[in-house]
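Reviewers of the previous submission asked for a worked example of the structure-prediction workflow described in the proposal, so we include one complete record here. The input consisted solely of the amino acid sequence. No template or homolog information was supplied to the procedure at any stage.
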Amino acid sequence: MTLALLLLVALSLDLPAFAADRPPGLESTLHARAKERAAQLPRLRSLLVSVDGKIVSEQYYREAKPSYWANLKSVSKSVLSILVGIAIDKGHIKGVKVTIDRFFPEHFGQISDPVKKKITIEDLLTMRSGMETTSRRNYGRWVQSPNWVRHVLTRPMVDLPGGRMIYSTGNSHLLSAILTKSTGMSTFEFARRNLAEPLGISIRPWLRDPQGIYFGGNEMHFTPRAMLKIGELYLNRGRVGGKQVVSEGWVRESLMPRTQSRWSGRDYGYGWWMGSIADHQAYYGYGHGGQFIFILPDLKLTAVITSATAPRQKRRERRMYRWAIQDLLEHDLIPAAANGSARFRQPMKTEN
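From that input alone, the workflow returned the following structure tokens.
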């Protein structure tokens, strides 16, 4: 059937028609410009976009390919949040208001500060435990310690639980330890059975602490397509096909602003960042070096970006790279989706 006949059939049925030279859901000119600009980002490895569950753009750079495993870095925190939600749904954890002392009696028996006994799972999810951070300048000392959980729990309190946001990967690692204790299986095995298998994706073991607890909030590895599935899961309110993988309520609670970064001003929920990009509400997981999962519900859009990490890169250079990615999204990729979706939804008109 010719293109002209296809267009006539679409018009007669009042269905949306699309040009053959572009994927449905992305406006071709902006899409082409986005791909051109993306190719100029020196550390970019992949850029994937899906609209309404269909991949409309999939680009790989510098020898990367669909089968390569990307280090999520702190996007792992977003995945860990999903696992906590599943554990609560299944009754392994009673809820986010549960205090963490009941999971670590062997450590809290030696902790004299009674305030720490008020720290809840929600405080860990939102980075409001009040404990001194184990990230940034304290990171090396933490991961070189003989017991990561004990090291986190013995950090001094610099705020009250539920107070200001103090970003700390140690908080997320405690969540992994809690998952391990409450489910009776490793965080990896719990993730494999309850997240990876329902989504039809692969997951492989990642770094563990000296006690064998899988690193919570860092070092998970997924393929870019698997990352896209994670974003689409939240876009679909926790469902994949006919299966509810994580409750709709957990998705809603995760994406509510709970606190705010004093550095970026961005809102933070349960392991997910949120803010406006190109006048569209966006939710995203962000990892060091340029790892992202973006969700834009009003456009039914999910986008994944992975990058080569550069641990020795200066802070200013990392910031410039993040700005370049945001500029690409704000001025090219999201407008391509917004304009393309609008065009895709409208029936094409014939000239009189």
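Confidence is low (pLDDT under 50) at residues 1-23, 343-352. We consider this example representative of the routine output the project will generate in years two and three.
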